[in-house]
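protein under study:
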Amino acid sequence: MEKSFVTVSDKVAGVHLCKENGTDCATALPETEQRSVLIHTTGDVVMQIVCCFEEKLMQMITQNMYGGELPAQQVPLYIKEYVNIVCGHGVSELNNRYHTRIRLSVPICLWQGQDESLCEEQEHPWMQLAFDTNYGMMSVQIFHETQDNL
């Protein structure tokens, strides 16, 4: 998934991500300045993926995708599309490499009055990625519910 985030972010959003090793995603971003998007997978591998963005980075991603300044009400649509594209790329890679069938849900913006309980506490193994950019930090937390084929 790391490669998908780096590659797709550069191509789709014009943002270069640099992986931050040893960064704790739970504390990497100040809660007051972050925006989170949640997406699930179903099928052979069930995952919950939570992408957290600093506000400035989210604005840059969405503006680059839109091609300029965009209306505030369009930001959630574009950031959800970004997460869908990045995660879709990663899921396709997993499906091709491991001959699995994994599908994505529709992304949800958690700051739009969505119930934060949608991010259930997980006791399963998980992976975390932290990226730095010229516009701020992004963290990705991936909670695996099953890894039968991986």
Observations:
- The chain has a mean pLDDT of 86.
- Strands lie at 18-19, 34-43, 47-54, 102-104, 108-109, 126-133, 136-144.
- The longest strand covers residues 34-43.
- Residues 10 and 83 are 13 Å apart (CA to CA).
